[in-house]
Design a protein that fits this description.
two-stranded antiparallel ribbon, 5% strand, globular
Length: 519
């Protein structure tokens, strides 16, 4: 019942965001474009982006996107968001059931759940259309099943099937990290706890047989559709090459030592402090505590050794960092240093309204002056003040955590209603709808863009391919007879383009300009 209340509360809090937010161009709109191309060409295993092979990701998430298009006829944010929001809540529920084995108090369990759901990058992934949260869910489920097998006196046949299936689904969601996290963390845990001889019970012939069988079927289907070159790209270029010397997102070894602090904000100080102090004092007594610690640390180190890095790649470790820290809190009393880890984020909350006003008035957030954003920032400020009162007048660590978490979710709920006012800054829907309406009136079927990043994915809204052009091509008349979309700042101080566009009908949509080059 308590988990049901949190499910309902979290869904209500993020509902305005998943209803009103536009698709972002960087990844979300690209996935929609790839799915549309796959449906048009009849592909299920070998994907293409604007005609070029796209072997970056396994097919599971793209299948979900394709399914939504088949069912509804178009892509809806609310439908696709379910496959990020629900996995996040499943992870929370599994982790809560897991720590229930540790005789954790209800207050700490509630704080753990709220901390996870309000951890910066975790809640960000829950509201973003990516496959990362799906992979994290299957990794968490596979590790949970392993632990149940570890503690079970009898062999459970269902678990011996679920374990490899969950691992495969993790691979099928995002790639090799789906097997590396459970394989390395389980192996090292068994080694450290003196159980390495039982490794074959979990990673035996049945597990590897199921994994290899499923992967073989997948790779045969990929080969049948995409040929040897596509399969080679999927198996080697997107795995080995990105791991050893990445051509994409290449970062130094210490990258996650930096991203950790903002990825797990506002709880990063508390999490890092508690876990490090508990480690120094050797407070990890139980198997569960040692296993959580092993998962978090091995995932952190392993991903640091891989060449390709972005902050979201560390997501599989987030639930274990959060819940391990909360488990350890039962061994700490309120003290100055512990309170400081929550005081600093509380002060940031208090400053939210003032900082927001300065950024809006200063121009950095000029388009975000909607009154609902002011209310959301005010809620954070009030929450920060209330959290400080809980921390120092009631000496309540869990009360402070819960206050900060609930205040953040309330701010997300209120701010979400104001998203329509800034959607033109977030995505392409507004400018594309205006351009498409103009094209129908003028009987135009050629769309061009200048200086707009990732604009090739506009075909999701326009139902037509979009051609990117440069200044020289524009001045040479390549776009004549079509519609050109660009950013206002791209032509504001360009005398040649201003002269060329003189007398042409123009339409402004947020920061974008649409120019009718047929007239």
């Amino acid at each position: 019942m308590k988990n049901s209340i949190i499910w309902i509360g979290f869904i209500i809090a993020v509902l305005p965001v998943i209803i009103f937010r536009d698709f972002t161009p960087d990844n979300e709109l690209r996935y929609l474009s790839i799915a549309n191309e796959a449906l048009r060409d009849g592909h299920l295993f070998a994907f293409y982006n604007q005609g070029l092979p796209y072997a970056d990701k396994p097919p599971l998430y793209l299948w979900i996107v394709m399914l939504g298009k088949v069912i509804f006829g178009q892509h809806y944010m609310w439908f696709l968001s379910l496959f990020s929001v629900i996995p996040a809540l499943v992870i929370m529920t599994v982790m809560d059931r897991w720590i229930a084995l540790q005789n954790i108090s209800d207050d700490l369990r509630l704080s753990a759940k709220l901390m996870l759901l309000t951890t910066g990058l975790f809640v960000g992934l829950a509201l973003t259309l990516r496959m990362d949260m799906l992979m994290c869910m299957f990794i968490t489920l596979s590790l949970y099943v392993f632990y149940q097998m570890l503690k079970s006196k009898r062999e459970n046949r269902l678990y011996t099937w679920l374990f490899p299936i969950y691992v495969f689904l993790a691979i099928f969601s995002k790639g090799p990290v789906g097997i590396l996290v459970p394989l390395i963390s389980i192996t090292l845990f068994l080694l450290v706890t003196g159980r390495i001889r039982t490794w074959g019970r979990y990673w035996g012939w049945k597990t590897w047989g199921i994994l290899l069988s499923l992967c073989t079927i997948w790779f045969i289907c990929v080969y049948a559709e995409g040929g040897n070159e596509y399969l080679n790209n999927l198996l080697f270029n997107q795995t080995v090459n990105r791991a050893v010397d990445s051509f994409h997102h290449k970062e130094p070894f210490y990258y996650y030592c930096i991203s950790f602090w903002y990825s797990l904000a506002p709880w990063s100080l508390l999490i890092a402090g508690v876990i490090l102090v508990a480690g120094c004092r050797r407070l990890y007594y139980t198997d569960l505590e040692q296993f959580f610690f092993m998962i978090a640390i091995t995932t952190f180190v392993m991903l640091s050794c891989i060449s390709s890095k972005i902050a979201v790649y560390l997501a599989p470790a987030f639930p274990f960092f959060v819940f391990l820290a909360v488990i350890m809190l039962k061994r700490f009393r309120w003290n100055f240093w512990l309170s400081l880890t929550l005081l600093l984020p509380s002060i940031v909350y208090v400053a939210a309204l003032g900082v927001f006003i300065v950024l809006v008035k200063g121009g950095e957030l000029a388009g975000y002056g909607h009154w609902l954003f002011y209310v959301a920032a005010s809620l954070l400020t009030v929450t920060g003040l209330l959290a400080i009162w809980k921390l120092y007048w009631q000496n309540s660590i869990t009360g402070t955590i819960n206050t900060l978490a609930i205040g953040l979710l309330m701010a997300v709920f209120v701010g979400g209603w104001g998203l329509p006012s800034v959607n033109n800054d977030i995505g392409f829907r507004g400018v594309c709808e205006q351009a498409k309406e103009l094209a129908v009136k003028q009987n135009i079927d050629a769309y061009y863009t200048y200086g707009i990043r990732r604009s090739d994915s506009m075909d999701v809204f326009l139902d037509e391919d979009v051609q990117r052009v440069d200044e020289t091509e524009i001045l040479n008349g390549v776009c004549e007879g079509g519609i050109l979309m660009t950013l206002n700042r791209r032509i504001r101080n360009n005398a040649a383009l201003l002269d060329y566009f003189a007398g042409k009908p123009t339409y402004t949509v947020g920061n974008y300009i649409i120019i009718d080059l047929k007239q």
